[in-house]
Design a protein that fits this description.
Structural class: alpha/beta
Shape: globular
Helix content: 40-55%
Number of domains: 1
């Protein structure tokens, strides 16, 4: 074979390799050009609003924040009483999250027009007390027991407060002064407001209070709340004061069922120290606190969708004690290890209508 032939063959092979390389590069470049542009990560949106204090633990839960991040949200809040938030400056706010339909209706009466309004969480109003206090009041008829569950006859409690009975008169000899049941400020905070509505309905023979019945019973209602003196405007602060000051200062305190369940899960060491003393007392009748989420714009709507998701509904029950807007993910309350929690809430009545609730606020403000 001649040297010329060998050289020609080498040139041909080299040319083929060059062409192949060009083709491969062209194919790769063409394929890359045909692919869609990579989508830039969506920037998280900060959602601002007013939040009732009893729900702060949920919003600060690391799992909730992680679920929010997955939804492209950073959830921020300012703590406010359910009624206070309706009259507060709402500039830059995307949502309001009061603790009842009555508070939401009050907001509508103030001219607030949410893009949507929806019940997201539920918890009954209860009375917190201490075991020796509750046991001492059994003989008076104000407290009774059904197994491990303590029940309070609200009508009997109202009669005792209007009659100026002392703790000693009712059997609790360590109590100082007149019998009373403390609550948050009923003109600013939902738990106190719903307690006032419950008292007004009991004074109305067990039927939801009306404008006329509230006007008739206004003096009696003011007398009951005057016994408590200073009242907190946040249910969270009120519950913390109840735990901190003890039965010598606050023998009984109105709150939400969810608060003791949240406490048992998220502060188990402290709960273990007081669990044998604390008592959750279901009132007969009681009212449901229906935590209503009010979206004010598109960002608020996105947070609403997150709150109604199965994941958040389950988290709200399992770690924070809210019975939820549905039964999805809700199992027996025995999961919390809290003695005396009712499987089913007894004897609930409806809240008065908005006109009666607003009259109730006017009467108590005066």
């Amino acid at each position: 074979m001649s040297a010329r032939f060998v050289a020609s063959k080498g040139k041909i092979i080299g040319l083929v390799l060059v062409v192949a390389a060009v083709v491969i590069v062209g194919v790769v470049v063409g394929w890359q050009a045909s692919q869609p542009e990579p989508v830039a990560p969506e920037e998280a949106v900060t959602v601002n609003g007013y939040l009732g204090g009893e729900k702060i633990s949920l919003f600060e839960d690391s799992e909730f924040q992680s679920l929010a991040a997955d939804a492209g949200l950073i959830v921020d809040y300012k703590k406010a009483g359910s009624y206070s938030m309706m009259t507060s400056d709402q500039t830059g706010m995307d949502y309001l999250f009061p603790s009842s339909q009555a508070a939401a209706a009050y907001g509508s009466a103030q001219g607030i027009e949410p893009t949507s309004s929806d019940i997201v969480l539920n918890s009954p109003i209860v009375v917190y007390t201490y075991r020796d206090v509750a046991d001492a009041l059994v003989a008076s008829g104000i407290i009774s027991k059904d197994g491990d569950v303590y029940l309070m006859d609200v009508s009997a409690a109202v009669d005792a407060m209007l009659s100026d009975k002392t703790w000693a008169d009712l059997g609790y000899t360590d109590g100082y002064g007149e019998f009373r049941i403390d609550s948050t400020d009923p003109t600013a905070s939902n738990s106190g407001n719903e307690w006032a509505a419950l008292l007004a309905s009991v004074m109305n023979g067990g039927s939801p209070a009306t404008v006329e019945s509230v006007q008739r019973d206004g003096e009696s209602l003011r007398k009951v709340f005057a016994k408590s003196g200073w009242m907190e405007t946040s249910s969270e602060d009120s519950f913390n004061q109840f735990l901190t000051l003890g039965k010598g200062s606050k023998p009984m305190m109105v709150g939400y069922e969810s608060q003791i369940l949240d406490f048992a899960v998220n502060d188990p060491d402290t709960y273990a120290q007081v669990k044998d003393e604390l008592v959750i007392c279901y009132t007969t009748p009681t009212v449901w606190s229906t935590h209503v989420f009010m979206a004010l714009d598109e960002n608020g709507e996105r947070l609403h969708d997150l709150l109604k998701s199965d994941e958040v509904q389950r988290l709200a029950w399992e770690r924070h004690g809210f019975r939820g807007a549905s039964l999805r993910g809700t199992d027996s309350p025995s999961r919390f290890g809290v003695t005396g929690v009712a499987e089913n809430v007894p004897a609930a009545i409806e809240l008065p209508n908005n006109d009666a609730m607003q009259e109730l606020i006017r009467q108590l403000q005066s």
